[in-house]
Amino acid sequence: MVGIPEAKLESWASKGAIVTAETTHKSVRKALDACDELRGIDPEIYLQGSYKNSTNIRGESDVDVVIQLNKTYTPYTLELSTKEQELYKSAHIDATYFLPEFKNAVLDALKAYFGYSMVSEGNKCIKIKKDSNRLDADVIVCNQYRKYKRYVNWNDQDFYEGIIFYTKLGDKIISYPKIHYDNGVNKNSVSKTNNLYKPTVRLFKNARSYMVNQGIIKENIAPSFFVECLLYNVPDTLFQNQYSTTYLNIIKWIVDSLSNGDYKNFVCQDEQTKLFGDTHKQWNLKNGVLFLSELIDLWQEW
């Protein structure tokens, strides 16, 4: 059969190293534990992105770390009924500790622990340079975001938990890394895809990296996050033990979805946002179609 050899697809499906990612995460935690101000606030620290989701591939060098303020959270209550909004408002008081001062404390703690030359502030995140024991780290400093589904009282409420932060340019960023992770674990389960979802994500991410390295597509055409979200929409039954079959199954299904308009219902893995659109949180449809076209050519011309 023509196409990409099964051995190559199997190698693309394999997972990259995770030990240094865990070491990086632990070092950030130690930095914050050494800060008296932050110890009293007890921030939540966790990985997000490919290392957390077990979709990391060889060559990925940045670890995404979230430092989340839970003492203060940002609510979104507009989807509640008028009565629920009134109940929520009457039960809550204004915060006294805010994200800007929290971020300043985090930045000071990281510089004190790692050294001023190793830590810098970018537009979206704080960057920590790698050394022999850890990887480069992109640190998101945020506070909890609650998108409310129901509110009666403190003991009877329900919400989607996300994170919210602002770039240095003033843009507001909201995402749901915990929901993204939980949904990926569920789709990868034995009852869903028989533990084949995450290896398949790695396969397509490696195919994407191969095409970038070969100059076939530009790096910004198919960000890894959107590649993973695209595959999240693929029916569970199309993930097969033979990766060549899975590759072809998925390509055909996406082509059909583009033809019949089903792509309009594709969602990101957190299921809070449509995958394709014109916002910074969505994939430009033109780029998605280009990526698909190049995946087809990659198979046919291998």
Question: How do you describe this structure in short?
Answer:
Helix content is 44%, strand content 20%. By secondary structure, it is of the alpha+beta class. A hairpin with a 4-residue loop joins strand 3 and strand 4.
Protein topology:
Layout (H helix, E strand, L loop, with lengths): L5 H8 L5 H15 L2 H6 L2 E5 L1 H4 L8 E15 L5 H10 L7 H16 L4 E3 L4 E3 L7 E18 L2 E11 L5 E4 L1 H12 L8 H17 L10 H9 L10 H18 L24 H17 L1
Parallel strand pairs: 2-5
Antiparallel strand pairs: 1-2, 3-4, 4-5, 5-6, 6-7
Helix pairs in contact: 1-8, 2-6, 8-9, 10-11
Outline the structure in words.
By secondary structure, the protein is of the alpha+beta class. It folds into two domains: 19-175, Beta Polymerase, domain 2, CATH 3.30.460; 182-301, no CATH class. The chain is built from eleven helices and seven strands. Strands 1, 2, 3, 4, 5, 6 and 7 form a seven-stranded mixed sheet that branches. Helix 1 (6-13) crosses helix 8 (197-213) and helix 10 (243-260) runs antiparallel to helix 11. The termini are close together. It catalyses: O-(5'-adenylyl)-L-tyrosyl-[protein] + ATP = O-[5'-(adenylyl-(5'->3')-adenylyl)]-L-tyrosyl-[protein] + diphosphate; L-tyrosyl-[protein] + ATP = O-(5'-adenylyl)-L-tyrosyl-[protein] + diphosphate.
